[in-house]
Amino acid sequence: MLTKATALLWFEKAAYYMAENKNELHMLDAAIGDGDHGINMDRGFSALVREIPEIEHLCFGEILRRAGMVLLSNIGGASGPLYGTLFLKGAATVGDSEALDAAGLLTFFDVGVAGLAMRGRTEENEKTMYDVWAPVLREYKKCLAAGMSLDKILDACVKAAELGMKATIPMLALKGRASYLGERSIGHQDPGATSSYYLIVALYESIRE
Ligand SMILES: Nc1ncnc2c1ncn2[C@@H]1O[C@H](COP(=O)(O)OP(=O)(O)O)[C@@H](O)[C@H]1O
Ligand SMILES: [Mg+2]
Question: Is 200 buried (19+), middle (13-18) or exposed (0-12) by CB count in 10 A?
Answer without folding.
Answer: buried
